[in-house]
Amino acid sequence: MKKIAVLTSGGDAPGMNAAVRAVVRSSEYFGYEVLGVNFGYRGLIEADFKQMEHLDVSGIIQRGGTILKSARSEKFREAEGRAIAAANLKKEGVDALVAIGGDGTFRGGTMLSKEHGINVVGVPGTIDNDLIGTDETIGYDTALNTAMQAIDKIRDTADAHERLFLVEVMGRDAGFIALETGIACGAELIILPEAIEKIEDIKESLKDILKEKSRSTLVVVSEGDESGGAIKLSKKLEKDFSKYDMRVGILGHIQRGGSPTAHDRVLASRLGYEAVHAIHKGLSEVMVGVINHEVKITPIAETFGKMKKINMELYELAKILR
Ligand code: ATP
After folding, report:
1. CA-CA distances (angstroms) from residue 219 to 30, 70, 306?
2. Looking at ligand 1, which atom is closest to the CA of residue 101?
3. Under CATH, to which class is 140-257 assigned?
C-alpha cells in the first residue's frame, strides 16, 4: 500500500484545511494511507508526524488557517536538512508528498524529489495568487472578499468625513488583491507593483480625482508597490495634499484569516483530489491547478520565477469607472 505525506508550508491561506481534507479523503478512495506533517518542512526534519484518517479531517472544511500548522524552515534549504527529512519519510514508508504552499514550498519539494526520489506534487496555496499554472490559488478569493468587506467599512467612515484614505492590502510582489478589491470597492485610485507609476504621476492623478470629487477618496495600495506601501506613500503625499484629511489603514493579517469562501473550498477540494490522482498516476514534480475551469497539470519547475500577470484591462477599467 502506498503512503502519502501531506504538509502545508510558507504563508498560510484560507482553504488549506479543505485541501488537506481532500487529500486525506481522496487517498482513502485510492486505498492509500496518509501521514500528516505538522509545521511544513520543519516537521519533516523533526519527524513531527501523525496518521490521518477520515474522521481526522471532519469539520475542518470551513476552518481558516491550517490544522497542520505552517512554518518556514532554513534547515530545509540545505542538503543536510533535506537528507534528514527524506530519511524520516522513508522510515515511515512514505512514497510521495503533497506540498500545499507557494513558490518556495515547490522549490523545496522539487529538491527533495530530485535528491531522494520521493514523488512530490504541489498544490498552490497562497493568498497572493502569484503562481502560474492556475487561474487562482487557494486562499486568494477569501482574502479578496475579506479585504473588500474591510474596505467597505472604511469607505463608510471616510464618506462621513470626506476623507482621503490610503488603504494597504497584501501582495508582496503581485497586485492581484489590490486590483480586484480596488475595483470591487470602487476605489478612486489603485497603486500596484505591476503598474510603474512615478510619485509625480500619482500626485497628478490624485489632484484630478480630488478636483472632481466631493465625497471620500479611496486609494488602494498594494504592500509590494515600489512606493513602499501606504504609510510611505502618505509621507510622500502629505506636503502637496495637506489641506485634505488624509488617513492610512493597513489591513494586514486579517486578510489571511477567516472561513474560506465557497469558491476556495471547491477549488481546494478539487486540487487536493487532483494531487492524489497525480500521485496515483505516478507523476512527480508537478503542480495541479485549474485553468478555464479545467484541471491543469504543470511541471513544477515551469512555475519557478514566473509571476502570473495581472489583467491590465482591469486596471484600465478601474480608471474608467472611478
Ligand atoms: P508564500 O508565497 O505564501 O510565502 P512559499 O511557499 O513561497 O509561500 P517560502 O517561505 O518561500 O513560502 O517557502 C517555504 C519553505 O520552503 C521555506 O521555509 C523553505 O523551508 C522551503 N524552501 C523555499 N525555497 C527553497 C529552496 N530554494 N530550496 C529548498 N527549500 C526551499
Report:
1. 50, 32, 28
2. 6
3. alpha beta
Mutation to probe ligand 1, out of 37, 39, 68, 77 (largest number of atoms < 8 A from CB): 77
The ligand 1 atom at the shortest distance from the C-alpha of residue 11 is: 3
Q: Tell me the CATH architecture of domain 3-139+260-302.
A: 3-Layer(aba) Sandwich (3.40)
Residue with cell 510622500: 236
128 is catalytic: yes
Residues with CB under 6 A from ligand 1: 9-11, 41, 72-73, 76-77, 101-105, 107-108, 111, 126, 128
Distance CA(300)–CA(109), nearest Å, equals 9
CA atoms within 13 A on the CB side of 25: 19
Å from CA of 69 to ligand 1 middle: 15
Q: How far apart are CA 219 and CA 154, in angstroms?
A: 11
Q: Considering 128, 130, 225, 264, which one is annotated as catalytic?
A: 128
pLDDT in tens, the chain (322 residues): 689 999 999 999 999 999 999 999 999 999 999 999 999 999 999 999 999 999 999 999 999 999 999 999 999 999 999 999 999 999 999 999 999 999 999 999 999 999 999 999 999 999 999 999 999 999 999 999 999 999 999 999 999 888 999 999 999 889 999 999 999 999 999 999 988 789 999 999 999 999 986 689 999 999 999 999 999 999 999 999 999 999 999 999 999 999 999 999 999 999 999 999 999 999 999 999 999 999 999 999 999 988 899 999 999 999 999 8
Q: Do the beta carbons of residue 188 and residue 166 sit within 8 Å?
A: no
Note the pTM of the prediction, 2 decimals.
0.96
Write out the residue limits of the CATH 3.40.50.450 domain(s) in the chain.
3-139+260-302
